[in-house]
Amino acid sequence: MPELPEVETTRRKIEPLLAGRIILNIAHDAPQRYRDTALAHGRRISGLSRRGKYLILHLIPPEARSDEPHDLELIVHLGMTGGFRLEEGLHTRVTLTTDAGHLYFNDPRRFGKMAVVPAGAYGGMPTLAAMGPEPLSDDFREEDFVRRAAGAGAVKPWLLSQKPVSGVGNIYADESLWRARIHPAQTNLSAPEAGRLYRAIREVMAEAVAAGGSSLGDGPGNYRQHDGAVGFFQGQHAVYGRTGQLCPRCGTPIQKMVLSQRGTHFCPACQPLRVEDNRHRHAEGGSHA
Ligand SMILES: [Zn+2]
What global pTM score does this model have? Predict the structure, then answer.
């Protein structure tokens, strides 16, 4: 499933093909999945941004200057298997035609979505509306993260909610927790734990973006860049997809568990579950008495 590094890589690759172009047509046969796309016809694309795992094409009237604020957005979520291609394929779901040519949205499993909305009007997209700060931006602040983590439930599902920080999905949650030596089901992180996790998230996301994201497997449903290139971050995975292989830090076999219905990879030696414990505190208090 594409996560932030893959979506950012997609953004960087397709922006030169789209920025400044006029959308002539967006063709598809699924108006429930690709909503209000006709509103984009005749609009100029002034730029592409990204929030978490959402790609956002900025749309302006064709006569407007490209530095004017945009008033419409074409939001794209790649879903499990979506991606842009230069050539039409078996799984092409949407054909985007600009004054420069065609770009095809392929999506074998059809979980991808698009919608044209007024700029910033994310009411119909609760995940986008409630999304936390970008992990590589100055808005992602350690003190805020540490404070929120102290009251959070199991840390991995909390990360996947996108609320503490945007764009961290299954792969990068597992990798960040391993790097920070925190069990995925740990609750109520201590300040040192949350600080380690904060730094691990920033490092892992920066490294993955630099590597062009991860490509998993060879099937048609797997993430590729628009030109078919693969990402290389999977060569650096420490735990994700490495069940039974040895932890690169301590040599213990990596385990897999299911947590909130997501396959979760961790090292049982480096990432022990710290038992949260009132009993322990009571015992300490009692020993003073
Ligand atoms: Zn280990």
Answer: 0.79
